[in-house]
Amino acid sequence: MTVITHARRKSRLSKIIDEAGGVSIGVALTRAKANLASLQPRSLEEVAARIAELSALQPPASPEVEMEALRTAYRAANGVIDSAGPFDMADICAVALGLCDLIDAATPQRPFDWRVVPVYAQSLQLLLALPDNPEGRRKVRESLDLMVDRKLANPG
Q: What are the distances in angstroms from CA 17 to CA 22, 28, 70?
């Protein structure tokens, strides 16, 4: 019987990890926050653009175009979540997620109620305008959460 032996080589990654140096976690977090802060104005512009896209949506004129309109609304709401998520805009993300939930729940037996899209667009605009009003933000979210619960429990 033949036994093959070979010398084990230590991986370069483990060697780098074991060596001293690099950046501490605190410094890395500080740098990451600074990098994110520089991107926040662009993120707010993107959130506003997606909200404008939601505001411009009209109920589809025929069932043939409804799926594309739903995709457009979903993409816009998802874009709000993507742009607002890294910047501690949990209320805005939660509201956009509520719209996504309503769109996801739409079926041929349970059609989407297009009246909610302008409500969500206006609510998102309001949340952008109320950055320092926690009570107002809470009321907006609670009202929308109640609407989502009602729509999902009782369509129409």
A: 9, 16, 48
d(CA 86, CA 72): 23
CB 47 within 8 A of CB 83: yes
Tally of domains within the chain:
1
Rounded to whole angstroms, how far apart are CA atoms 112 and 69?
Answer: 11
Span 3-13, average pLDDT: 76
Q: Report yes or no on 23 lying in a domain.
A: no
Place of tokens 């009003």: 133
Model's pTM, two decimal places? Answer: 0.78
Average pLDDT for residues 89-99, to the nearest whole number?
Answer: 94
Does the residue 79 lie in any domain?
A: yes
145 CB neighbour count, 10 Å cutoff: 13
Stretch (H or E) spanning 154: none
